[in-house]
Structures are given as structure tokens and as C-alpha cells.
Design goal:
Two copies of one chain form a homodimer.
Chain A lengths: L10 H9 L5 H19 L2 E4 L1 H16 L11 E5 L26 H8 L3 E6 L27 H8 L5 E6 L5 H7 L2 E4 L19 E6 L2 H12 L13 E4 L10 H16 L3 E4 L9 H16 L1 H6 L6 H11 L3 H21 L5 E5 L18 H5 L4 E8 L5 E7 L5 H15 L3
Parallel strand pairs in A: 2-3, 2-4, 7-8, 7-9
Antiparallel strand pairs in A: 1-3, 4-6, 5-6, 5-10, 9-11, 10-11
Helix pairs in contact in A: 2-3, 5-6, 9-11, 9-12
Chain lengths: 431, 431
């Protein structure tokens, strides 16, 4: 550990080092701030950061710990907060010029819970416009010409670039999984509703889900357990999990390297003792992606009424188009989408009788160029179904940019997902 | 109509009069403001009202209509907004001194949708503290010594007192049904999630539901249809509905007059041709009220973390106690409550195979005195199960204060609920 810089520690390592008196929060936060100072001009992961404010929180955490008042494993831990999540003491701009300089009256529940647990709110990570697809300023830390993905662009990039060990993100389509995969880190979208959403700027209230970007599965579990009280043990499963390979109806949207990655990973898991099967989804699933888009657009149109009616000139063309489409989705179509979703949820629950986790692509391939944020193709269905999913780094693709594999569990089985994902992570890291 | 003051018109009547050029929004809003000027000192229904601001909106609506630009049946209609719902141009204090003078950056979705439809945001109606039980300043318009109920206290009192034809409320336990029943008006809590919640101050995100207080079932349907696009026809059912009388496991908490009211109403409906049966709930339902309290308290504790950690001295003793209890609800207990709720949802769906609506008490009796806001007893289970429900005025109790009966439908059957409630309303009004 003496040769590892503090900012490169995982959250679990840093927590332990602070608990054992080998590391202070001030030293950890200083190390993160140094990394940010060195790299932010290139990566552009932060919507707001004030080093003095972050250090003051760190010193307060250290002082409390010195008096025996450490509050949790998160005590003294820096966390980045996606800028669609309210903070009372930092601007919260939702990725939109409409909210330039906006200061909410209160912290979101997840932010104030982190503070209550002794954590340090390091700063606000860049979001795309209202967590939709229009890109913001962030670059992929592996290549400035490529997107970090979105919408949790800054959360993905900052964690991947060792600026912070943990960041909160949100996912409505693939906004945690995609940036985490593109940036080569872990992204965890819990079962819908697991982390309290009070104080989150809503886009689609039936889908918006808070989650975590981190460098290890155990780190994602640490933050989520702290926020929810749900016991999450990130010890890799002792027995190999039963894995259903789910090519999804969009398999042909995955590039050759991604298809090969899923197949080779499955083979590797089988060789390690996993019972690997193939999941054949019913035809009802074929429309889940288009259903997700219509369903969420209906909700976008309503959730962003203030912005589209009073500040239309400050919306991006892509969001303007998406909202116009949402305004045309009828209530009947919306309810039909709900019914189709419920049907697929029930079908999917049965598929999970035969496997502990499913394995699927995280993205169609490596990060595309900086003009967009990539395609949400492999996130839409799982989000629409409310299922917990994690992307685990899985090496690099032909362009030398990161790839991930996605692991999905049954609704509510976040504890099982974490253990199985830790197993997958260990195997994939064994290169 | 010449003898009816404009503020006494129902929303449907006012809408029609404006569409036919017999009434302007300015005249309607002026009439509401006159009533408020005359009565607000006694009733105290408004957290904020600025007559000039309301009249300016009304004149703008009239000007637009004069140019052929009427936008919807809500065009020119004044609506009261419960003060837990954000408005960008009026203070929003969530019923708490913590937020004295708070001005949100944006309207809640429901508010901006009303504006988009041409409606007039008349003002903010009083909420109890964060929509919990601690009373605010409002009095029952039928008796200043009695509570209007809560938490949508001002919405219930203002509509009952002819200050405004429509008001938005929210319900987490019984916060629409109870004040509407105590004040002698209609209260409609839709199926969970029907009206978009972006911009609502969350208390329990799994339960908080936006709904309407109005003087007729048709008026509640008018506003809800406008906000959601769900077709709601408030023509009374042509054939008498099948009615299941649900005494609920808390029947002995209803006073004699309320029990008699349910029984006499059922007899009356049967005499009018309804097929009336008795719903025998399984023992699993016996714990639904205590489950609702534990489940919601777990969420309160998280949603109000900012307030309880930074402004504890400004919380009422009752809310402080509720939050402390919520902090002790374990994740396992919360998940057990979820599982019990799902089981009861499935059981309840089967009971609705045998009836179109259920009939149950709205409250344990008439409004109690002004020290509290009454008991949520007959709202908790229906809210926990996410079911749509309406309270319909049903005469007066022994103290001369209003009573209501509650009508409940299966999840998602809001259209059926509205038609059946309109049938019930017509019968109960036939005295």
C-alpha cells in the first residue's frame, strides 16, 4: 500500500486504512484533488468542485474520528455526486443552462445520508442535459476524442481516472451501465427504487434509478449498503453461479468484438465451473426497447413541462425532439407499454428460476467519438423491467478502449447480484 | 345560473360557461378572491395567495381565449395547489418553518401542465408539516373549532368553502380522503403514479400520490383527465355497479354513525339496483395498517434526512418521533412489508373480480377538534395497496359535521371508479 497513491485506493481499501489510522480523510481527499488538478483540464468530469469546501469536510471527518465518532465505513470517504442530484451547498445545474448557478434549498436524500454517515461530498460530476442523451463537456479518460458515455458522464470518467473512488449516478435507459463500461469501471444500477430518490431531478419517475460508479464491485456494495441498510456481501460466490447467457433481441447491434467477448466470457465462466445456459427470450421481448422509449418519452414530456414551456430556447435539439415525440404518446399507448412490461417482468422472473444471473453486453462496443454519448441499446430492457444490473470491466476492444460485460439478476436479488458479480470480476481480472 | 355566484359553480359548470362566453376567467377568479377575502380570516386555507398575480393570469387566459386560443377545458380555471408542490412564482414552504419564504427554481410537472392547459394557479393551499400529521393553521369551514383534516388541509377547506373549485392534494396515508370527508367535499386519490410527481416534495416515494379535491366527482375527473390524458367519463354508470361492502379490519374504529352510514348507504344502493355483497378480507389484511406505518416511516426517515440532520430544532415533536421510529425500521422489515403488500395486492385483485367497487368508511367519524388532524385509519390500507379511491359527501353526523363514504376500485381502474363514484354521488345527493 505504501506505493499506491491514496486516490488509487478502492473505497474498501481506503475505508479500512482510515479505520486503522493509516490514512486520514484529509490525505485521501487531498490526493483526489491533486489528481483532479492534474487531469481535469483534459477529462472535464466535474460540474462543480471547490477544493477548500471538500477539504473542510475531510478535516471535520478526521476530527470526529479522532474523538471516536466515526459514523460508518463511509466516514471520511469522498463521493462524487451526479449533477442531477440536489446539494444545498453546491450548485446543481442538471446539465442544462436553464439552471446555471442554481442552488437547491436542500440536499437530496442520498446526499444527506452520505453526510450523515460521515462521507465527504467531493463535488458534482457532469451530467448530460437532464440525464438525457445530449452530451456535455466530459471526455473519456482513456481517449479525449471519445465519449465517456452518458448520462452519468462525469461519474464514469472521474472514477475511471482515479479522481474519486465512488460516484453516484442515475439510470433511466443505460446511464450508469454505458458510461461505466466505456470508461472501464464498475457501474451498478440497483433494483428500481432501492436508493431513495427524494431530491433527484426526475426525468421518468417510473424508471429513474440511483446507482453507483466505482472501480470494484465491493465498492459499489459498500456505498449501496450504507445508503439502504440492505446487507450486501461482496465476497465472490463460493460456488460458481448458474449463468444464463442472454443475447437479447438486439444481439446484431453488438459489434463483433462485443459478441466475441460475451461468448469467450461465457466459456471462461463455464471452465471455472459455472453452469452456463442460453436464455431464449419469448417474442414479447422483441419490442421492449421501443416500448421503453415510448414509455419514458411520455414521462419526459410531463416531467420537463416547466422547461419545455418556459425555456424551450435553452433545450438541445435532440431533447426538444424527444419531448415532442413524448407529447404524442397517448395515455392508451403508455398503458399498453405498462401492460407489456408487466408481462415481460413475469416472463423474466421465470427465466431466473433457471439461472442466478444473466450475462449480456453492456454496450454495442467501445466508446464512440465525442460527438454523442453512445447508444443505450443494451440498457433499455433491463431498466424498463426494473432489474438490478452491473457492468464489470472486461479488457479492451480493437481500438484499445474499455469493454464491459453486464450481469443481471432477478428483481430484488441485489445481494445475489453483488456476490455473483464479484465472482465474475475475479475471473475477468485473472488475465 | 344567474342566481349562482361564480365561485359556487362547479369546475365543469364554470368551464362550460367560459367556453360559451357567459363567464370570463377574470370574473370567476374575482369571485373566488372575494370569497377568500371574506372568509380567509376564519378558514385559513391558504399558505400563499396574491390577488394581483391570480388576476393577471386570469386576464391573460381571457385574452388568449378572445383570440381563439383556449387551450383546454381547464382554460381560465382557478386551481389551488397544496404547498408541498413546487411553484416557481409563489413561495413553497412544505408546511414547515424550515422552508419559510422558499422559492423553487421550477414548477412541479402538475403545476406547469395546468398552466400549459390555460389554467390559473390561484395560490398555495395549506399543508401540514411535510404532509405529515402535525396540524397547520387551517380550520374546518363548517366549524372553526374542528380540524379540516390533513395533510391536504387547505385543499379540503378552500374547496369546501367555495374559495376555489379545484385543488391538488397529495396522499401518503389518508391525506386527500380525510380532509375531503371532514370538509364535506369530494377527494380523489388516483391509482399510484397516475399524475406525474416531478416537483413534489417527497415523504414516501413508494406511496405519495397526487390527487384532487373538488365539489363533484365530475370536477375531479376533469382535472385528472387534463393532467394525464386518461379518458375519464363522469357520467354515472348506466347500470348499477356491483358493490362489495368492505368493513376492513378496523371497523370497530369507526363510530356508530359511520358504521350506520355505511350500512344505510349499502341498503340504499341495493334498493337502487346495485348488487351488494360483503367482502371478507383474509387475515393477511389485518396487519396492513401497521405495515403501512412501518413501511412509510422507513421512507420518511430517508426522504427527510436533510431536515432531520440540519434543522431538527424546527421539526414538530410528532414528526421527530415518527422519524426516530423510521430510523429503527430495518431493511429486512421494510422488505417484509413490501412482500406482505404484494401478497395483499394480489388477494385484493381477486376480490375485485366479484365487484366493480368497494364501499368503506372514509374516516372514523366526523372531524375531531382542532388540536389534531384526525386519524388516517381508513386510508392507510388502500394507499399501501396503491388503489384508486374517492370519498363522496354523505350528509352530516351527530355533531352536524360532514361525513363521507369511500369508494375504491381495482388498481388502474380509475375510469371505472369515476363512473361508479358518480353513480354513488347521484344517489347520495337525492336526499
Amino acid at each position: 500500500m505504501t506505493t499506491t497513491r491514496a486516490n488509487e485506493l478502492t473505497a474498501v481499501q481506503a475505508s479500512q486504512a482510515m479505520a486503522e489510522g493509516r490514512l486520514t480523510s484529509e490525505a485521501l481527499v487531498s490526493s483526489c484533488l491533486e489528481r483532479i488538478a492534474a487531469r481535469e483540464e483534459d477529462v472535464r468530469a466535474w460540474a462543480f468542485i471547490d477544493p477548500a469546501q471538500a477539504l473542510a469536510q475531510a478535516r471535520a471527518a478526521d476530527a470526529l474520528r479522532a474523538k471516536g465518532g466515526a459514523r460508518s465505513p463511509l466516514h471520511g470517504m469522498p463521493v462524487g455526486i451526479k449533477d442531477v442530484i440536489d446539494t444545498y451547498d453546491m450548485p446543481t445545474e442538471y446539465g442544462s443552462p436553464i439552471y446555471a448557478g442554481h442552488r437547491p434549498a436542500a440536499d437530496a436524500a442520498c446526499v444527506s445520508l452520505i453526510r450523515e454517515l460521515g462521507g465527504v461530498i467531493l463535488g458534482k460530476t457532469v451530467s448530460t442535459e437532464f440525464a438525457t442523451r445530449h452530451p456535455n463537456k466530459t471526455r473519456n479518460p482513456h481517449s479525449p476524442l471519445h465519449t465517456p458515455g452518458g448520462s452519468s458522464s462525469g461519474s464514469g470518467a472521474s472514477v475511471a481516472d482515479f479522481m474519486v473512488p465512488l460516484a453516484l449516478g442515475t439510470q433511466t435507459s443505460s446511464s450508469i451501465i454505458r458510461p461505466a463500461a466505456y470508461c472501464g469501471v464498475v457501474g451498478y444500477k440497483p433494483t428500481f427504487g432501492l436508493i431513495n430518490r427524494a431530491g433527484l431531478k426526475f426525468l421518468s419517475e417510473s424508471l429513474d434509478t440511483l446507482g453507483v460508479v466505482s472501480r470494484t464491485v465491493a465498492d459499489a456494495a459498500l456505498l449501496t449498503e450504507s445508503l439502504t441498510g440492505l446487507a450486501l456481501d461482496a465476497t465472490p460466490s463460493s460456488s460458481a453461479p448458474r449463468i444464463g447467457v442472454c443475447r437479447t433481441p438486439w444481439w446484431d447491434k453488438a459489434d463483433a468484438a462485443t459478441q466475441a467477448l460475451i461468448d469467450s466470457s461465457a466459456a471462461r465462466f463455464a471452465a471455472a465451473g459455472a453452469k452456463v445456459s442460453s436464455v431464449a427470450l419469448e417474442p414479447a421481448f422483441d419490442r421492449m426497447n421501443e416500448i421503453q422509449i415510448a414509455f419514458s418519452s411520455y414521462e419526459f414530456f410531463r416531467a420537463l413541462t416547466h422547461e419545455r414551456t418556459r425555456h424551450a430556447e435553452l433545450l438541445s435539439p435532440s431533447l426538444t425532439g424527444r419531448l415532442a415525440a413524448g407529447g404524442k404518446v397517448t395515455r392508451a399507448a403508455y398503458e399498453a407499454a405498462q401492460a407489456d412490461t408487466r408481462q415481460c417482468m413475469a416472463l423474466m422472473a421465470r427465466h431466473f428460476d433457471g439461472c442466478d444471473i444473466m450475462l449480456a453486453p453492456s454496450t454495442p462496443g467501445e466508446a464512440p467519438d465525442i460527438e454523442g454519448t453512445g447508444e443505450p441499446t443494451f440498457g433499455l430492457m433491463w431498466t424498463q423491467l426494473g432489474l438490478p444490473c452491473i457492468t464489470v470491466p472486461a479488457g479492451k476492444g480493437p481500438q484499445g478502449l474499455p469493454l464491459g460485460v453486464q450481469v443481471i439478476a432477478a428483481s430484488g436479488n441485489d445481494a445475489g447480484l453483488i456476490r455473483a458479480a464479484a465472482w465474475v470480476e475475479r475471473l475477468l481480472a485473472a488475465d
